Amino acid sequence: MLFTKVHGLGNDFVLVNKNEEKNLPGDLAGLAIKVCHRNFGVGADGLVLIEPGKEADIAMQIINSDGSEAEMCGNAIRCVAKFAYEQGLVRKTKMAVETGAGIMVPELVMENGAVIAVRVDMGTPYLEREQIPMAGPAGQVINEPLAVDNDVFNITAVSMGNPHCVIFVPDVAAVPLEHWGTRVETHPAFTRKTNVEFVQVLNEKEVRMRVWERGAGPTLACGTGACATAVAAVLNGYTGRTVRVHLYAGALDIEWATDNHVYMTGPAEQVFTGNYPIG
Ligand SMILES: N[C@@H](CCC[C@H](N)C(=O)O)C(=O)O
């Protein structure tokens, strides 16, 4: 299986062009688990499959490293847009990408003919309407307490097509990510499980975030998580609508614009190409 290893701020993916690979196994979950394994596979947070879109320039599918499928991935979509342009699959710097969360619109930021960043229209956020016990009549969960074993977290639930639970903390470096992340991810309040973001507000324009991803565990960055974080920071009155979200390997710039769309800008990198044995 021909693949390209890509990443956005260290959130890494095995990217496969389905047009080049006609013999993919039917069990894509099993393939993702194998190929993403850090010791026995290529190593990645997820497997991303692309093909020509039915209603857009290109379509992408994201499967987490545990084999579960996600609706959307912010870091992957930047990589997909750059890859599609550089491979000549899409000959436009602004393109429409079909995802499980609807059509998103990345735009390449070019300098001297090279892609230096990608700005993505990530669509409109909505406040989770899952069966969360403490949700009000409108289903909104903004700064509501959630009991998790012996801890109580004040959470804000935001969907960017995929679910996010944002928790503001005074010191993000002190968060026991593994211990808290896995418990919140699998808390029965979240019917589809959830991604979990721990966020420290630095000032009204900047926050620092660490993430525990649904289906992948701790990752170095999460694009949809950064968008959800910015929306949650605005809703809680911590920041303005333009927020720089600092992550382990750099930052994503997020704007929750007046058209209610969230725009994310950040890098996308190709690391290497390879051929993974299947079958
Ligand atoms: N890392 C991604 C999100 C990938 C999917 C997520 N784990 C989920 O299950 O929703 C991003 O950059 O947005």
Q: If you had to describe this structure to a student in words, what would you say it looks like?
A:
The chain has 279 residues and is α+β, with helices and mostly antiparallel strands. It has two domains: 2-119 and 267-275, Roll (Diaminopimelate Epimerase, Chain A, domain 1); 129-260, Roll (Diaminopimelate Epimerase, Chain A, domain 1). It is 16% helix and 42% strand. The protein contains four helices and 19 strands. It has helices spanning 28-36, 74-86, 177-185, 223-235; strands at 2-8, 11-17, 46-52, 58-64, 69-70, 97-99, 102-111, 114-121, 126-127, 144-148, 151-159, 163-168, 195-203, 206-213, 217-219, 242-247, 250-256, 262-266, 269-275. The protein has a 19-stranded mixed sheet that branches. Strand 16 and strand 17 (250-256) form a beta hairpin. The longest helix has 13 residues, at 74-86. The chain starts with a strand and ends with a strand. The model has no long low-confidence stretch (mean pLDDT 95).
Features:
279 residues; alpha+beta; Diaminopimelate Epimerase, Chain A, domain 1; 2 domains; 4 helices; 42% strand; binds ligand LBFN2T5F
Quick recap:
InterPro entries: DAP_epimerase_AS (IPR018510), DAP_epimerase_DapF (IPR001653). One of its GO terms (cellular component) is cytosol. This protein has 4 helices and 19 strands.
Question: How are the secondary structure elements laid out?
Answer:
Layout (H helix, E strand, L loop, with lengths): L1 E7 L2 E7 L10 H9 L9 E7 L5 E7 L4 E2 L3 H13 L10 E3 L2 E10 L2 E8 L4 E2 L16 E5 L2 E9 L3 E6 L8 H9 L9 E9 L2 E8 L3 E3 L3 H13 L6 E6 L2 E7 L5 E5 L2 E7 L4
Parallel strand pairs: 2-3, 4-6, 12-13, 14-16
Antiparallel strand pairs: 1-2, 1-19, 3-4, 4-5, 6-7, 7-8, 8-18, 9-11, 10-11, 11-12, 13-14, 14-15, 16-17, 17-18
